[in-house]
Amino acid sequence: MSEKYLTTGKFAKLCKVNKQTVIYYDQIGLLTPTYRNKKGYRFYSFRQLELFNVIHLLKELGMSLEEIQSYMEKKSPELFYSLMIKQKEKVRMKKRALDNLEKMMDVKISLLEEAEETDFHQISFLYFPENILYLSLNIKDITDEEFAKVVTQFINELNAMGLDTGFQIGGMTLREQVLEGEYTNYSYLYMEQLKRKKTRRTLKQHRECMQLAII
């Protein structure tokens, strides 16, 4: 043998997997050894390390062994390029989802810290810094049955548009209604946004409305 070969154990160590993984890949035809001696022992080429790395990468990206095997049977530079572009977009989407999840967790932690210092037995008028709220359609004077539907629709809309920031859904009531003791005839549902988004219904918080958390 002019080329240097690696035993299954050494090749597995180089790939940072156990020996049985390399053997299994051979058994299913995914990564066959370069050479077998007369006793049936497997030997792998150092050049096969790159092939194993591709298999490992595709597996980490969520592809099944069957999908990887199908790709390997018709692999080409063009197909690999197309696959990488497609998988990169999936990774970006997962990263965005994880980033949003982390932001929502930060919001929940902040709300819990604020709740520890809040007296829930009294209503207070508070002035907040200007921020962006995403609003529902006008719901003033709707029935209880309609209200349940509106809340469901609003939650679905937040999820569909990626606007669920982890804040509580709030009810916006006109100031004059609050002064008259009418606290729950909301004009809008809203959710506070972490940053400005181009949506069809956003409103700067102003002094004419009072926020009441309802969920």
Describe this structure in words.
By secondary structure, the chain is an alpha+beta fold. The protein has two domains: 5-75, Multidrug-efflux Transporter Regulator, Chain: A, Domain 2; 132-213, no CATH class. The protein is built from seven helices and eight strands, in the order βααββαααβαβαβββ. The strands form two sheets. It has a five-stranded antiparallel sheet with strand order 7-4-6-5-8. α1 (8-15) crosses α2. The model is unreliable at 197-215 (pLDDT under 50).
In short:
By secondary structure, the protein is an alpha+beta fold.
Cα shape: elongated
Number of separate helices: 7
Number of E strands = 8
Regarding quaternary structure, what we see is single chain
Q: What is the radius of gyration?
A: 29 Å
Strand order of the largest sheet: 7-4-6-5-8
Order of helical and strand elements: EHHEEHHHEHEHEEE
Report the sheet-strand fraction: 5-15%
Helix-residue proportion: 40-55%
Task: Find the structural class using helix and strand composition.
Answer: alpha+beta
Uncertain stretches of 5 or more adjacent residues: 197-215
Largest sheet: 5 strands, antiparallel
Total number of distinct structural domains: 2
Measured between the Cα atoms of the first and last residue, the distance is: 73 Å
What's the mean pLDDT score?
A: 84
